[in-house]
Amino acid sequence: MGCYDCCMKCLGGVPYCSLVATLMCFSGIALFCGCGHQALTETERLIETYFARNLQDYITLAYLIQYFQYVIYGLASFFFLYCIVLLAEGFYTTSAAKQTFGEFRSTLCGRCLSSTFILITYLLAVVWLLVFAFSALPVYFFYNMDATCHTITVLTETPASINQLCIDARQYGLLPWNALPGKACGMTLSTVCKTREFRVTYDLFIAAFAGAGITLLALLTYMVSTTYNFAVLRYLGRKGIGTRC
């Protein structure tokens, strides 16, 4: 067998669907965790500087941000390991690998393992759909803030109308209702929108939202891949070439 034939057989044994899903999952999780972590830090700084004067007004928010940052560390580690395991499972069950490594025997343990991965991936996809929806909330908040600032820029000739345009962090649950000032209005809000912290935080939340979407797409791809792999193992078992562990 020549070098070309060996290379083609090796390439034929690659589970491309699982490989693409793994790359998408790595990039999506990196975006979501990296940008989300920094965006939470910048959000705390914005709230502390412009929306709250007393530490007790945003101490709960600070604890929640710290908690979510620890959750992000755990998510990054878990998805890194889980994607590696799913990729290895894809190598194991791909039909091309059967031709590459000779006789393949579908075991009962292999079929049980594939069905377990299907169940876990489906559950993760449902949970991550909620995470994806949740990650849209800060984007919505900063979008409203940016749109209000744009309106203030347009209405600069009527100061009375400008002072009535506000963003109240208390309405979004970021601060308690007794927090002071709790909101930014008029030119003060416009000044906030022109700061580097606001722009960076807005962009980071958009990137984190995009990362969550990419991760969700990767999980859907994994669902298709693991379901197909299980169907292959089930078919081999019915053809009478399966064995027990």
From TrEMBL:
Might you name a Gene Ontology BP term for this protein?
Answer: axon development
ATP-binding as a keyword?
no
**Pfam families, per database record:** Myelin_PLP
Keyword Membrane set for record: yes
According to its record, how does it sit in the membrane?
A: Multi-pass membrane protein
Q: Which UniProt keywords apply?
A: Membrane, Transmembrane, Transmembrane helix
GO MF entries: structural constituent of myelin sheath
One GO CC annotation: myelin sheath
**Family classification:** Belongs to the myelin proteolipid protein family.
The cellular location(s) given in this protein's UniProt record come to: Membrane
Descriptive protein name: Proteolipid protein 1a isoform X2
Q: Where mainly found?
A: membrane
What sections of the protein cross the membrane? 70-92, 113-137, 204-224
Which stretch is the leader sequence? none
- What InterPro entries does the record tag this protein with? Myelin_PLP (IPR001614), Myelin_PLP_CS (IPR018237)
